[in-house]
Amino acid sequence: MIAAVQACGIEHPWAHQALAAEHALEGDSVVVATGTASGKSLAYLVPVLSTLLDGAEAPNGRGATALYLSPTKALAADQCRSVKELSQPLGNSVRPAVYDGDTPFEEREWIRQYANYVLTNPDMLHRGILPSHPRWSSFLKSLRYVVIDECHTYRGVFGSHVAQVLRRLRRLCARYGSFPVFLLASATAAEPAVAARRLTGLPVVEVADDASPRGELVFALWEPPLTELQGERGAPVRRTATAETADLLTDLTVQGVRSVAFVRSRRGAELISVIAQERLAEVDRSLVGRVAAYRGGYPPEERRALERALHSGELLGLAATTALELGVDVSGLDAVVIAGYPGTRASLWQQAGRAGRSGQGALAVLVARDDPLDTFLVHHPEALFDRPVESTVLDPDNPYVLAPHLCAAAAELPLTEEDLDLFGPACADVLPQLEAAKLLRRRTKAWHWTRRERAADLTDIRGAGGRPVQVVESGTGRLLGTVDAGAAHSAVHEGAVHLHQGRTYLVRSLDLEDSVALVEQADPPYSTVARDTTSISILETDTEIPWGAGRLCYGSVEVTNQVVSYLRRRLITGEVLGETKLDLPPRTLRTRAVWWTVTEDQLDEARITPEILGGSLHAAEHASIGMLPLFATCDRWDIGGVSVPLHPDTLLPTVFVYDGHPGGAGFAERAFHTARSWLMATREAIASCECEAGCPSCIQSPKCGNGNDPLHKRGAVRLLTVLLREAPEEKPEKPEESEKPEKSEGPEESEGPEESEGPEGDGKAG
């Protein structure tokens, strides 16, 4: 094994690699939390491959096996290539294979019988491997190591699901007589051992001192200039982050600089590649084919071809979603352009770290979008550079998460009393509910799954909520890709513009029953943005504290959301060309929210008259949603909000901010605990903005269901000033973090979530 590592040109490991390998070989679960390009892969590959090599001497040639879990298919394919390169001198002793939804059926049986290093993702483990564990018995019996790469991505609801999938894996392994060691790799994160323990349910040793050398990284904060145009309500309009990023990618490509532009949405990635290709055609036609888009939802052969082209240097520029952010070894990159703050400092450094991976200097540019948070960050760089990265928060005891996994576990093997410790203390409350719903039945000492359908299909661990909608070209019947069910209403409604690999399509029809969107190629001079309405009702108040005469509350709510229309916006400038009504069914979401109320006296003190009350609440709501990612480690698109001058449940003017995931994802709770700091930053962001009556940099929202009307900037500042004057001091407590949900937005006044990228680079938001 040492000879194989030296054959790759590595004479000695870094100190952190050696330490992690030592722990692994001694049987300790370990998390390596060091920077990008610090050789985390080698830290776990050396002990794993060494153990597989020893196991190859067993009579069946498979005395030891290892399972590698990655949040994305791209990363698993990339790691498989690395393992094959590293293990080449070892002959056939190490047999790596990728087992995911793209694996041909004829290969699957060979992998189950002979592969000893299986690379897969949590989705496949949940739906494919664990439910059919008898067919995997020889693999599970010999399982020595489970590698969990990029484990910081398992946060919020998605992370909570993965934590329960890992508990199901540990339970089945124990039944087959194996107790694998868990090896986790994470980007630099706060308290990685705590997060790793919560994820695996096991004690984990932390290795966090990065001993690898680094090249210089020049980091630029870039604010697009104001244009001559006027936006909604006559507000000044900046050039879009999309247009600026496309220009930067074009300039870098012309200079032969290998670059990736990270974009938050699939549509944004496609748009940037289209604009860059058009600009390059004007300069040098030979460069047009050297820029492309990369996102989730592509057919597997298209994804693999793009990854190969990037590795070979055939592609100079790539506009990518977070599907490419994680670990894919895009070595040799000179520059990274980040279109809009990605939502967490951890993600920002992860993306920036893709540049300069061979030790040379590199450039990272954060291009600010026209919204309160991005504007705040480019004017307050200390909020990015002087603060630690966030800790990863997940809650395996969330009953919305736990219930389907208890059913899945019972379907794999009947659940016994002894198993309940493994799944956590919340089992005692959830099991009787599952019995009452006739999903589980207790016979003697165990609970059994009672239904004919597969228990693993009860939940989609990425929270997509239903089967993906297939995007089909109407003339040819060709499948272009898929869109998550949660994003379909807003992304592929009738009349929507759909981009795919530089080509533009118009959606002719959306069939929700058959989950098919029919599209045809077109060339409209505009993009489309969905608009929706939201109403909210309080189910239960868990906690409330007085804020002067008003109250700050946290609890359970039900949100009803409906996509009602879409705007057509001119490409590049973003100018609104018109609005078209839609007839789509409403959707409901039971989740967690934070809300605050104000009284007549407080309104009088803030000089808020009935005429400006709605606009003041609405403006404060928009800005607070824009600023929450600094405190709750979510993303603007993960959270929704509603503001009502007289809410029927509180009988007072009320502002709600809610999690966009069933059962909640932890960010509304975080907002409740940091409410004073959060709303002070919100007030500061509105008050310090130079605009006259409100703009996208302070109180206008890109996803408002009411067309950003009414809004009252000065009223919001006065209202927050009065509210904060009587705010109680916060107790110091640990930071938290969360994950990506599913779309929603405005009633009386409101805003909610839109398309964004989940860990597989698949769109969803809350």
Strand order of the largest sheet: 3-4-2-5-6-1-7
Count the E strands: 30
The level of helicity is: 25-40%
Task: Please count the helical segments.
Answer: 25
The biggest beta sheet is recorded as: 7 strands, parallel
Mean pLDDT: 86
Morphology: globular
Approximate strand percentage = 15-25%
Task: Give me the Rg, rounded.
Answer: 26 Å
Structural class: alpha/beta
**Termini, distance in Å?**
47 Å
Which regions contain 5 or more consecutive residues with pLDDT less than 50?
733-750, 752-766
In short, what is this structure?
By secondary structure, the protein is an alpha/beta fold. The protein is built from 25 helices and 30 strands.
Would you mind describing this structure in some detail?
By secondary structure, the protein is of the alpha/beta class. Helices cover 34% and strands 24% of the residues. The protein contains 25 helices and 30 strands. The strands form six sheets. Strands 3-4-2-5-6-1-7 form a seven-stranded parallel sheet, sandwiched between helices. Strands 24, 25, 26, 27, 28, 29 and 30 form a seven-stranded antiparallel sheet that branches. The chain has a six-stranded parallel sheet with strand order 8-15-14-11-13-12, with helices on both faces. The longest helix has 21 residues, at 156-176. The protein starts with a helix and ends in a 15-residue tail after the last strand. Residues 21-207 form the Helicase ATP-binding domain. GO terms for molecular function: 3'-5' DNA helicase activity; ATP binding; nucleic acid binding. Residues 726-746 have a biased composition (Basic and acidic residues). Residues 248-400 form the Helicase C-terminal domain.
